[in-house]
Specification:
mainly alpha; single chain
Length: 484
């Protein structure tokens, strides 16, 4: 491997270390709070979160990605970008608070108003954090970023448990989000060697704003398509139904956040610096790693969906298992699309990305609105159909314009995808229709063990699958040892 590849993978491993610490804390929060709070509590917060997530997206305005992917950034530019972020976040805090009453009326849930006003504080702290995160990322300080992720999550969990223990209900989730954001900002400032000065009129940040407009528009479309499900369910169904759906969706996001998210943090600055002749090969290698790692995770989760729900959330959440299974089918294609996101941003092709996203995300929103008339299961099905359509369109029409062969992308992804889907389907059919195990932990072990056994058999009979697995394991081991 080249020095660049080894350093990149080591950066990814540092990031994964922090993310797994963060994951453990999030898992603890999921297990504990799901037993301390009701489905309706989670439903109320999900309604609020569907709105606040969009405001958080706008507060960054794509400027952190712009500074991370830029070839060079002057101190004056970064200072001006910081103050623009803070200004946008402050305006959003005021605007969301002002319109919180209308949001509560839309859902016909009075608790939404006060909750949304409280959460809007996060818009300011999050926007202030953006450039500190960008600076630490450009400096390749992945250990520091991982430390912040873990520490902030721990503080948020403690706050949530305390509030839930005294009967605070959904306010526990509000306290958790505010605590995470506030502690993260304080720690970013402490660890960073960069400080913003006063705004500089003589320094233009037009190039970052232009990048941010396109990026934010794409992310805005993604946000609408990813949150219209909760909004529509909140409008037509009870808070308890929204809570069941939200827990299934949050479980889907965990592997994406723990694996694809950290890889984005490492891959984006790395791909941005690569020469053109090495770019395509690096993208295909990233795609292979992503599809094998996330494919295995999704396969295990789908195969073990029912016992996982009972063990992690409790028996009262078992109704989320089938919703989770359907959502995972689309989540696989969402994961595969992460590489496309890296390509468009690192190549400054956000305008092209926006044009294609307008088509695919509009289609997805239409699917979800239609699916909402059939309840939570209809919404979950619509989300998966939309995510598959988005991946298909980008693969066939968008990626080739970025200089990446669609055939090569599909060739890298097809074999592991087929193996994981086949193994998962066989496992589910056996345990859903043929075998019944009454003990939930035994069922978990049996389902997971059966899936892994099937994958081992496939690795023995399919040489290419075996070679790919060995290649990825070798890459990780070499990088851990620091070898080139």
């Amino acid at each position: 491997m080249s020095n660049n590849t080894s350093a990149t993978v080591r950066g990814a491993l540092y990031t994964f270390g922090g993310q797994w610490g963060k994951f453990f804390i999030q898992l603890c929060a999921l297990v504990v709070l799901s037993r301390m709070l009701t489905t309706a509590d989670f439903g109320v917060f999900a309604m609020v979160n569907a709105i606040s997530t969009g405001a958080l997206l706008l507060s960054d305005f794509g400027l952190s990605a712009a500074t991370i992917s830029a070839k060079s950034v002057t101190p004056g530019e970064q200072t001006n970008v910081f103050w623009l972020n803070v200004g946008i976040g402050s305006l959003l805090c005021i605007a969301v608070s002002a319109f919180s009453g209308l949001v509560a009326s839309f859902y016909n849930v009075a608790a939404v108003q006060a909750t949304l006003i409280s959460v809007s504080f996060v818009f300011v702290t999050q926007s202030a954090s953006s450039q500190f995160i960008a600076h630490l990322t450009r400096s390749l300080r992945f250990k520091a970023l991982g430390f912040v992720d873990v520490g902030a999550q721990f503080v948020g969990l403690v706050l949530a448990v305390v509030v839930a223990a005294v009967g605070g209900g959904y306010w526990a989730l509000v306290a958790q989000q505010i605590g995470i954001s506030a502690i993260a900002l304080i720690t970013y400032i402490t660890l960073s060697d960069w400080r913003p000065g006063l705004p500089r009129r003589s320094t233009s940040i037009r190039r970052f704003v232009a990048f941010g407009v396109n990026t934010t528009a794409v992310q805005g479309l993604n946000y609408v398509s990813q949150n219209v499900d909760t909004v529509m369910l909140g409008r037509v169904a009870s808070a308890a139904t929204v809570g069941l759906y939200d827990r299934a969706y949050q479980l889907l996001k965990i592997p994406l956040q723990q694996i694809a998210g950290p890889l984005t943090r490492v891959a984006l600055p790395t791909l941005s610096q690569l020469p053109a002749e090495r770019f395509s090969a690096a993208v295909l290698k990233a795609q292979k790693i992503l599809v094998y790692v996330l494919g295995l995770v999704f396969a295990l989760l789908v195969a073990c969906a029912s016992p996982v729900m009972v063990i992690v959330l409790g028996a009262q959440w078992n109704g989320s298992a089938e919703l989770f299974t359907v959502l995972c089918l689309g989540g696989i294609f969402q994961a595969l699309g992460y590489v496309y996101y890296w390509v468009f941003l690192s190549q400054n092709l956000t305008g092209m990305q926006l044009r294609f996203s307008l088509v695919t995300r509009t289609f997805m929103v239409a699917c979800v609105i239609t699916g909402s008339f059939f309840g939570a299961f209809g919404v979950a099905t619509a989300v998966s159909v939309g995510l598959f359509t988005n991946w298909l369109v980008l693969t066939l029409f968008a990626v080739p314009r970025a200089g990446i062969s669609s055939r090569a992308i599909v060739r890298v992804s097809a074999l592991p995808f087929a193996v994981f889907v086949t193994s998962t389907a066989i496992t589910r059919m056996v345990f859903d229709f043929a075998l019944t195990i009454d003990h939930v932990w035994l069922e978990l072990v049996a389902r997971g063990g059966s899936l892994l056994l099937l994958l081992a058999i496939f690795s023995l009979v399919i040489p290419q699958f075996r070679r790919d697995c060995i290649e990825i394991l070798t890459l990780v081991k070499s990088s851990v040892r620091g070898k080139d």
